[in-house]
Each structure stands twice: as C-alpha cells, then as structure tokens.
Amino acid sequence: MAHLLVTGGAGFIGSNFVHHVLDHTDHRVTVLDALTYAGNRASLDGLPEDRFTFVHGDITDAELVDRLVADADAVVHYAAESHNDNSLDNPRPFLDTNIIGTYTLLEAARKHETRFHHISTDEVYGDLELDDPERFSESTPYNPSSPYSSTKAGSDLLVRAWVRSFGVQATISNCSNNYGPFQHVEKFIPRQITNVIRGIRPKLYGAGENVRDWIHADDHSSAVLTILDRGQIGETYLIGADGEKNNKDVVEQILTIMGQPADAYDHVTDRAGHDLRYAIDSTRLRTELGWQPQYQDFEAGLAATVDWYREHEAWWAPAKDATEAFYASKGQ
Ligand code: NAD
Ligand code: TDX
C-alpha cells in the first residue's frame, strides 16, 4: 500500500485515475487541485473516506506543495492548463501552471526524494502528415505548435533536467487524445455530444480532416499505474491505443449513435496553427512493461460516453453556456 499525491485529480483524466486507483489497488490517494474552471469536485464524490483526501490548493504554492510531497510515497502530476483553444486566447496561465507549477513540484520531490511521475501529451512532438508511415515514438524530436503544447514540452524538459542534474526519481508519459466520462464540455467529443443533447449542431473546425489517436481515459490510467510499478527511472513512455480517426468521422459517428442524420453538423473557423495528425507508437510500453489497452472498440467506448453525458447533465450543464459563448465569440 502506498500514498499517492495526485495533482489535478478533479480534472478529466486525473479524476478517472483516482477512481481507477481506488478501485484496483489498496493505495491511499490525496488530491491537490486548485478547482479552476476545469476542475470539478463532483467528479470525486462518493470515494472511500479512509483512503481519499481532497486538498484545495495551487501547485505553484511552494509551502503547501512541500508539506504534501513530504507526506507522499509518490507524486502523479496531472495538473495543467490543458486546452489548446484557451492557450491561443490567453497563454499566461499555461506558463504559470504548466511551467512554474511543475518546477515547484520537482523542487519538493528533489528535497524529499519522492518518486515522481509526470503526465504529458503527444502534442510535444508537433504533428504528422496524413500519409506519414512513421508514428511518434520515444525518440521523436520535440516540435510543439501551440502555447499549450510548448509549455507541456517545457515541463517535460524540466523533469528530464531534474532527473539528470539532481537525481530526482522521475518517469514521464506522453499520451494521445483521451475520451470518456468527466471530460470538460470545451473538448471536442463532449462538446459535440452535449450540443446534440441541447439541439445545437456539432461544430467541426475547418474541413475536419485532422486526425487524433483516441484512447479511453481508463486505459491511460492503467498505463500510468504500470509505469509507476515497473517503469525505469529517468525514462519516457508513450501511451496510445492505435485509435486514429479523423474529426469528421468522429462527429458523424456521434450523430449516428445519437439517432441524428450523419451530416447534421456545421463547419466553423479553423483553429490557428491546427496540428494535422497525431499518432502514437506504444511498442515500448507494451513490450518492456507488458501493458495492453482494454477498450479496443472505439464505437462501443463512444456509445458508452454518449450514455454517460445523457445521464449526467447536472455535472456538465453549469459549464455549457459559458463554453459556447466563448466559442461563439471566436466564430467557432
Ligand atoms: P483538465 O483541464 O480536465 O484538468 C486539469 C485539472 O488541473 C483541473 O482539475 C484543474 O482544476 C487542475 N489545475 C489547473 N491548474 C492548477 C493549479 N495551478 N494547481 C492545482 N490544480 C490545477 O485536464 P485533463 O484533460 O484531465 O489533462 C490532465 C493532464 O493530462 C494534463 O497534464 C494534460 O496535459 C495531460 N494530457 C491530456 C490529454 C487529453 O486528451 N485530455 C492527453 C494527454 C495528456
Ligand atoms: O468544437 C471543436 N471542433 C473541432 O473540430 C473542438 C473543441 C475541437 N475540434 C477539433 C480540434 C482537434 O483537431 O477536434 C480535435 C480535438 O480537439 P480538442 O478536444 O481540443 O483536443 P486537442 O487539441 O487534440 O488536445 C487534446 O489532446 C491532447 C487535449 O485537449 C490536450 O490536453 C492533450 O494534450
């Protein structure tokens, strides 16, 4: 039994991880989360009180972070500003949380010699042509496009430097696009599902040919637990489930699952600097650490996600109008 400090545990992937850990291990979990617009305390309702503690606070608060890291066996660092469109509108919070926040945690992990796992994204590698036979691997050079992905790339490099210069016991994972329950309505899949529920037509950026490599959030969680258990200190592991789909196909699948005509969506203004394609080669994680994804059927996972949003309107409704007003102001 170990005590994990999970930063950003009230967000989408962090909350899925906390549920996964409490369901599948006997670890104790403390969540540190600032409850920004993206954090939702309700995503952590009903967890066992003897194994779960919630701390409302900021990862840039060095004194608080020091106290919490001192008390943990390992830190799993999910907290971030995570949305590309927000980073194009106002980059500053991305620097504060993704760079200074990661630095603050690393300093505490260094001081207390605490095991550290850093959660990152495939977006640090930039993008691929649609017909490129190569996928991203651990040796792909960094080439981020957006303020979001450049601050994630910066945070990854800080972790590598703290491993090499100070001997911090850290691992890094870079994962592809996640879907599943508890994802904020600003993101592509929940935005379109909740649009259809509200009678709004889905909005596709540009022609919709951009490809994302989808993985269920629960598979991301099992991969992170595997790396925590068996990952080699100082190493990076790419997490992906061979789920490449273009955005147009995903919107059409959502409409079909929800009983609407497959062409009942609008094309809207494209994202500035929009990455064309992400694709992950997760061979290393599978062969060296023996991890396998469980959700191999994207359509079934998507249908379950549609059901979740239909059944949890009280969870997402408070954020919906403000999110759509933001997009409307950008012509999106
Ligand atoms: P999210 O935006 O849903 O959640 C982020 C959480 O961090 C929120 O609960 C928020 O309140 C918290 N937070 C933000 N700033 C904070 C601060 N300064 N101090 C404390 N807490 C703070 O994000 P997500 O989609 O769950 O992503 C989680 C992590 O996974 C991020 O590091 C992201 O880069 C990475 N990632 C995401 C995806 C994806 O598809 N969403 C894919 C690969 C990697
Ligand atoms: O309304 C939309 N219409 C649309 O066509 C939205 C919100 C998005 N899109 C497109 C843009 C992308 O090509 O859908 C794709 C997915 O968009 P997002 O959900 O914003 O995700 P993305 O930009 O790919 O980044 C996500 O995956 C990697 C997460 O937000 C990041 O945190 C993670 O690092």
From TrEMBL:
It catalyses: dTDP-alpha-D-glucose = dTDP-4-dehydro-6-deoxy-alpha-D-glucose + H2O. Residues 5-301 form the NAD(P)-binding domain. It comes from Aeromicrobium alkaliterrae. Residues 138-151 have a biased composition (Low complexity). The keyword rRNA processing does not apply. The lineage of its organism: Bacteria, Bacillati, Actinomycetota, Actinomycetes, Propionibacteriales. InterPro entries: dTDP_Gluc_deHydtase, NAD(P)-bd_dom, NAD(P)-bd_dom_sf. This is dTDP-glucose 4,6-dehydratase. It comes from the Bacteria. The keyword Lyase applies. Its cofactor is NAD(+). It holds the Pfam family GDP_Man_Dehyd. Its EC number is 4.2.1.46. Residues 132-152 are annotated as: Disordered. Belongs to the NAD(P)-dependent epimerase/dehydratase family. dTDP-glucose dehydratase subfamily. Keywords: Lyase, NAD. Transmembrane segments: none annotated.
